[in-house]
Amino acid sequence: MNSSPDRGIAVVVVSHQSASTLEECLTRLRCAIGIAEIRVVDNDSRDATMAIIQRHATDDARIRFIGNPDNPGFAVACNQGAKDCRAPWLAFVNPDLMVQPDTLSCLLQLAEPLGDCLLGADLVDEAGVRDPAARRRHPDFAAMLAAPSKAAGLGIAADDSHELQRVEAISGALMFIPRALFDRLGRFDGGYRLHAEDLDLCRRAGAAGATVAVASRVRVVHVRGVSSRARPLFVEWHKHRGLARYFRRFEAANRSWPVRWMVLAAIWLRFGAVALRR
Q1: Of 20, 94, 15, 92, whose CA–CA distance to 50 is shortest?
Q2: Using CB atoms within 10 A of its CB, is residue 194 exposed (0-12), middle (13-18) or buried (19+)?
Q3: Average pLDDT, the chain
Q4: Cα–Cα distance for residue pair 49/22, rounded to 1 Å
Q5: Phi/psi-derived region of residue 98, left when phi > 0, alpha when psi is between -120 and 50, beta in every other case
Q6: I need a surface site. Which of 118, 145, 172, 246 has the fewest CB within 10 A?
Q7: Which tens digits make up the pLDDT trace of 170-205?
Q8: What SS3 state is found at 63?
Q9: What phi, psi does 73 have (nearest 5°)?
């Protein structure tokens, strides 16, 4: 069952070289309950992605797409998609995420009583193994200085005893948020290219008093890293650049200049180590 744009859920999908998973992703979204609008923003794909999007848009009036002539990044594209629709609830869905028919409607039922909230789901891979990135804490830059190689280990253990497990941050693979809150927060920070924009939004949502949580009983398959496999160093560069931006935005002002330089050096030393392994 679908909803009118004034009452239902608007789904925003950002694609880039996503042909291997996008067909199934969009097919599942079209069958999902409560979806009023689907916006696909493509960041200069050179594979069959655009052909898949255009075919689905022809078959389903809820789907509209924006084709960017270059790749401005995930955050910018998410903002473009959100601006192009009007439903009161927004779901940012990766093109390698495979929702069930009731995934987003269940999130809506949990979100409505909360008001201001930012919800994620229990993400698993194709073998059913839980993704540690589904539940995260804020980056600990003091720990980063002590152990740079573990700086990105932000995952926390799942707690299935609560229908909603409150956390500091959720994964950007699936983010469910009221449009009013998203707009009030200033949307995604377009200064991030890839990675850490989800941590940034979660940080600002929590600071604004919103509930940030994972719906423990809403399980979704996430086929990770499909669009980034061809350019792993490019992705790692922007992942570390995003972490540095996050530090400057939220932590640097509370640190001495020597600590600031040490943290930034630790981030880029870690990137160097990753690059050498690649």
Answers
A1: 15
A2: buried
A3: 91
A4: 7
A5: beta
A6: 145
A7: 999 999 999 999 999 999 999 999 889 999 999 999
A8: strand
A9: 110, 165
Assign a CATH topology to domain 9-225: Spore Coat Polysaccharide Biosynthesis Protein SpsA; Chain A (3.90.550)
**Adjacent-strand bridge partners of 63:** 38
> What value does the mean pLDDT take over residues 239-266?
90
Rounded CA gap, 116 and 157, in Å?
24
Does the structure show a pLDDT above 80 at 16?
Answer: yes
> pLDDT tens, 19-39?
999 999 999 999 999 999 999
DSSP per position, 87-120: -SEEEEE-TTEE--TTHHHHHHHHHTTTSSEEEE
**For 146-171, what is each residue's pLDDT tens digit?**
665 554 568 899 999 999 999 999 99
**SS (HEC) of 126-156:** CCCCECHHHEECCCCHHHHHHCHHHCCCCEC
What's the whole-model pTM score?
A: 0.92
Residue pair 36/2 in contact by the 8 Å Cβ criterion: yes
Helix (H, G, I), strand (E, B) or coil at 254: helix
Backbone angles phi, psi at 112, to 5 degrees: -55, -45
Which residues lie below 8 Å from residue 239, measured CB to CB, with a gap of 6+?
152, 194, 195, 196
